[in-house]
Design brief:
Strand order of the largest sheet of chain A: 6-7-8-3-9-10
Strand order of the largest sheet of chain B: 3-4-9-6-8-7
Strand content of chain A: 25-35%
Number of strands of chain B: 12
Shape of chain A: globular
Oligomer: heterodimer
CATH superfamily of chain A: P-loop containing nucleotide triphosphate hydrolases
Distance between the termini of chain B: 33 Å
CATH topology of chain A: Rossmann fold
Number of domains of chain B: 2
Chain lengths: ~240, ~400
């Protein structure tokens, strides 16, 4: 099967040992009525394929802004962001959308499942976006099984599932297109401690399979799961 | 297999079914208004066309000068007119040739009294020999004596006229004695005709009786030429025109054939149909506002969902499509229900207003139902354009933050 442009870029980046993600002197400034607010202040950072990184720091330190940059939901005000060797600033909105779809899997604190779709359909959805057709390969079901959601449960709407189950479905959705990067924004923030650790075990397992996992957390216990911790304060990296 | 975005739209409509239904009712009303009004106008046009085509082989010749007097006069009152003269009539007969029938006639309106009941109608003076050339006597006989008269079907039924009844012609003023005519026959209903002889609400007398009481001998109100071969209609018209209207700048007679009258009347009815369609269109405009409002509500309620869709790689065009599908679903819902209602209501309206549904199922009439449905759907989609555009252009970060 022919590789998409994004997939080729990712494969080439791996071969050249180029960092999967490179931030070169990235700043993000919000122009507010009260004046300019610098959320990210000259960040320079490389993340290689297969790393497990935790972004930690107090509220307002710039963790979420950095996650938005890494998830190419936003572009830097100054500086350059490279994803798999490709400068994000030079990409069109559609190219960025396709890169998000093919290369990045998102796991949010509030799960953010589509309420009108069943758990199975939520997982199938990224496959439909990519292949423009319904999943006939059984991949969505297999990924759901791998995170502990059985067929019967997969027919339920998100509102009919517990928080832990919803987060498992969200992880399955993030994984179904086999992304290189898994961005997890406080994935255990809305879960009880036990369920939170179960979710973290899933993420550790994915990392061991070769996924690049980037985790935002304010919980030191959760951050301990990562192999590398980046600490942010006032929009700057203070420890890496 | 259905498009996932269509599925999402269907589910969204189902989730807010009552709201969607109420918005669609506006479209239903709009479709019914447009379809019913359109069908009413078209049925009216078709009926008039049908009636007018009965006299399609007739040329109607009138004087081009302004007529003076006659209106509402009493018999014996002096009157003058500038109708078709004897000389002009002779030229018409010469130009028309022997194969074609030339019928000169007088016409005015009059009051009359029957068994102490006053009424008003047209009165025609026609040579008895010409009557049966274009009129049908339903009951009774043709005019034989000078005081004999025929009456139209409407006047006969409205006044319960019978053969043998006598009518006093002219306005009752208490001092002057009024002439009386003797009803010998009742004409068959003609409806609206293209030969400008509307006898349903008229009294037909002999030309001699007419000129005896109204004057204007050899000043005919109009002359009808019934052309034997309809293919020569235009030829005969040109021949008469060139014979009498020698100076094109100052024509002395006006010659109308069925086609020009037909096109003039259908054009008027067409304008009327367009006008009533426009009134129906206003209701669709109101419906469009309602659909727009519902779509904006749908977008505003689903901001976070839009943020999720955009952040996980949904293209902006796909988000736009999802909301346009939703608008289309409302349009299809409203259009289909509106189509069924239009069939029932349109049929009832046409039946009640025109008195016949003979033309209702003809293609030019029934086409207003799919036409109205299509317009309703297009209006819905147009109403959904801005909300869909707004949804697709949201910033995914802001949308995700929305509660």
């Amino acid at each position: 099967m022919a590789l998409s442009e994004t997939e080729k870029t990712v494969r080439d980046a791996g071969m050249n040992e180029t960092p999967l993600i490179r931030l070169a002197d990235v700043s993000k400034v919000y122009h507010l009525e009260s004046g300019d607010f610098t959320a990210l202040d000259h960040i320079t950072l490389d993340i290689r394929e297969g790393e497990f990184v935790a972004l930690v720091g107090p509220s307002g330190s710039g963790k979420s802004t950095l996650m938005n940059q890494l998830g190419i939901l936003d572009v830097p005000t100054t500086g350059e962001l490279y994803m798999a060797g490709k400068n994000v600033a030079g990409m069109t909105i559609l190219e960025r959308t396709h890169m998000r779809r093919d290369m990045i899997g998102y796991v949010f604190q509030k799960f953010y499942l589509i309420p009108l779709l069943s758990a199975y359909e939520n997982v199938e959805y990224p496959l439909i976006l990519k292949h423009k057709k319904r999943d006939t390969t059984g991949k969505a079901e297999a990924v759901l099984n791998s995170v502990g959601i059985d067929k019967e449960m997969s027919l339920h709407r998100p509102s009919q599932l517990s928080g832990g189950e919803q987060q498992r479905v969200a992880i399955a959705r993030a994984l179904v297109n086999d992304p290189k990067i898994l961005l997890c924004d406080e994935p255990t923030g809305n879960l009880d401690r036990k369920t939170g650790f179960q979710i973290m075990e899933i993420l550790v397992g994915l990392h061991s399979e070769g996924k690049t996992v980037i985790l935002v957390t304010h919980d030191p216990k959760i951050a301990e799961y990562a192999k590398r911790t980046i600490t942010l304060e006032d929009g700057r990296i203070v420890a890496s | 297999m259905r498009d996932i975005f269509f599925d999402l739209s269907v589910r969204s409509v189902k989730l807010n079914f009552l709201r969607s239904l109420l918005a669609s009712i506006g479209i239903v009303i709009g479709v019914v208004a447009i379809s019913s009004m359109g069908m009413l106008g078209t049925n009216m046009q078709l009926q008039v066309k049908d009636q007018l085509s009965q006299g399609a082989n007739t040329l109607v010749i009138t004087s081009d000068a302004v007529r003076i007097g006659l209106q509402g006069s009493t018999p014996s009152a002096s009157s003058s007119s500038s109708g078709i003269t004897k000389t002009q009539l002779l030229k018409i007969k010469q130009s028309a040739g022997t194969d074609n029938k030339v019928i000169p006639l007088y016409r005015t309106s009059t009051e009359f009294t029957l068994r102490s009941v006053d009424g008003r109608s047209s009165i025609y003076g026609i040579a008895p020999g010409d009557v049966t050339s274009f009129l049908t006597i339903d009951n009774g006989t043709n005019i034989q004596w000078v005081n004999d008269a025929l009456v139209g079907s409407s006047i006969a039924s409205n006044f319960n006229l019978k053969i043998g009844d006598r009518i006093r012609i002219g306005k009752a003023n208490g001092t002057e004695s009024r002439p009386m005519v003797h009803i010998v026959g009742i004409l068959k209903a003609r409806g609206m005709t293209s030969d400008n002889v509307n006898t349903d609400n008229a009294i037909i007398v002999s030309r001699d009786w007419y000129t005896d009481h109204y004057g204007g001998v050899d000043q005919y109100s109009q002359v009808n030429v019934i052309v034997k071969n309809i293919d020569t209609l235009s030829e005969v018209k040109t021949a008469i025109d060139s014979k009498i209207n020698t100076d094109p700048k100052t024509p002395v007679i006006r010659i109308q054939d069925a086609s020009s009258r037909l096109s003039s009347i259908t054009s008027t009815l067409g304008t009327m149909t367009t006008f009533i369609l426009a009134i129906g269109g206003i209701s669709l405009l109101v419906a469009a506002t309602s659909i727009f409002n519902v779509m904006m509500m749908s977008v505003n309620e689903r901001i976070q969902e839009i943020g999720i869709l955009l952040s996980i790689g949904t293209e902006r065009g796909e988000v736009r499509r999802m909301f346009l599908y939703e608008a289309l679903i409302l349009g299809i819902l409203g259009g289909c229900v509106g189509g069924v209602c239009s069939l029932v209501i349109g049929y009832s309206v046409v039946s009640a207003m025109i008195g016949t549904t003979a033309y209702f199922f003809l293609p030019e009439s029934i086409v207003y139902i799919p036409g109205g449905m299509l317009i309703g759907m297009v209006v819905c989609v147009i109403s959904g354009l801005y909300p869909a555009w707004r949804a697709s252009n949201m910033d995914p970060i802001d949308a995700l933050r929305s509660e």
